[in-house]
């Protein structure tokens, strides 16, 4: 049977300070989408509120704006997908083999508090599906608890955008919290690459996480490998 991936994207367009725009880091979706598409998987987009998805302006500039991102923006049908994402209540988690949380600083605002996304993630995980994220996508896992009340990421090896990368990206004064620290507070065994901004992905059972935008392809490739094993 064809494997199905649920890709999670944001609805938020700016930081707390409205003069600083943000949104989906497009290549974190397009790199993974391409890997999953090549593997023959079916894919769906969901967002915390459903509907439209703003794009992070910085992700549309070199070197972040690469072949897959350009191809997506040039394709009206693909762009239309970002205007019509499903809301969590429209999603039957039993139809999906994996969930993949994309990033961009915007997700720090709307991913953690989405009870709908938490439900979907918990249900996929507890029936043996794959839970994955890249970059700030792990913010979508920070508040997710399992049926026994424990945090899904507790005791799990994982990664995500590092605080040192926030500082180097000069957004440490803009972000609403330190995601790396919060993951550790919830019991995650957080790790990162020795150098910032290089591709780095961690697999711990059915949990697959990537550190930064450059890790999307590697993360998706590891997810695909688990699904086709």
UniProtKB/TrEMBL annotation:
<keyword id="KW-0456">Lyase</keyword>
<dbReference type="InterPro" id="IPR050325">
    <property type="entry name" value="Prot/Nucl_acid_deglycase"/>
</dbReference>
<keyword id="KW-0645">Protease</keyword>
<feature type="domain" description="DJ-1/PfpI">
    <location>
        <begin position="27"/>
        <end position="224"/>
    </location>
</feature>
<keyword id="KW-0378">Hydrolase</keyword>
<dbReference type="GO" id="GO:0006508">
    <property type="term" value="P:proteolysis"/>
</dbReference>
<comment type="similarity">
    <text>Belongs to the peptidase C56 family. HSP31-like subfamily.</text>
</comment>
<protein>
    <submittedName>
        <fullName>Putative intracellular protease/amidase</fullName>
    </submittedName>
</protein>
<dbReference type="GO" id="GO:0005737">
    <property type="term" value="C:cytoplasm"/>
</dbReference>
<dbReference type="InterPro" id="IPR002818">
    <property type="entry name" value="DJ-1/PfpI"/>
</dbReference>
<dbReference type="Pfam" id="PF01965">
    <property type="entry name" value="DJ-1_PfpI"/>
</dbReference>
<dbReference type="InterPro" id="IPR029062">
    <property type="entry name" value="Class_I_gatase-like"/>
</dbReference>
<dbReference type="GO" id="GO:0019172">
    <property type="term" value="F:glyoxalase III activity"/>
</dbReference>
<dbReference type="GO" id="GO:0008233">
    <property type="term" value="F:peptidase activity"/>
</dbReference>
<keyword id="KW-0346">Stress response</keyword>
<dbReference type="GO" id="GO:0019243">
    <property type="term" value="P:methylglyoxal catabolic process to D-lactate via S-lactoyl-glutathione"/>
</dbReference>
């Amino acid at each position: 049977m064809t494997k199905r991936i649920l890709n999670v994207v944001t609805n938020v367009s700016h930081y707390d300070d409205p003069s600083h725009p943000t949104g989906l880091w497009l290549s974190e979706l397009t790199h993974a989408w391409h890997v999953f598409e090549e593997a023959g998987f079916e894919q769906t987009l969901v967002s915390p509120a459903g509907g439209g998805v703003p794009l992070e302006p910085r992700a549309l500039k070199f070197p972040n704006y690469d072949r897959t991102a350009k191809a997506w923006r040039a394709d009206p049908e693909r762009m239309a997908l970002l205007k019509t994402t499903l809301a969590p209540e429209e999603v039957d988690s039993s139809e999906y083999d994996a969930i993949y949380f994309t990033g961009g600083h915007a997700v720090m605002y709307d991913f953690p508090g989405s009870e709908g996304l938490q439900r979907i993630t918990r249900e996929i995980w507890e029936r043996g599906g794959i839970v994955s994220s890249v970059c700030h996508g792990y913010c979508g896992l920070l508040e997710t608890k399992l049926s026994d009340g424990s945090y899904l990421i507790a005791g799990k090896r994982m990664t995500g955008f590092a605080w040192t990368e926030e500082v180097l990206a000069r957004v440490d004064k803009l972000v609403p919290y330190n995601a790396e620290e919060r993951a550790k507070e919830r019991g995650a065994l957080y790790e990162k690459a020795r150098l910032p901004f290089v591709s780095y992905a961690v697999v711990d059972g059915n949990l697959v996480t990537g550190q930064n935008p450059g890790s999307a392809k590697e993360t998706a490739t590891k997810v695909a490998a688990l699904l086709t094993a």
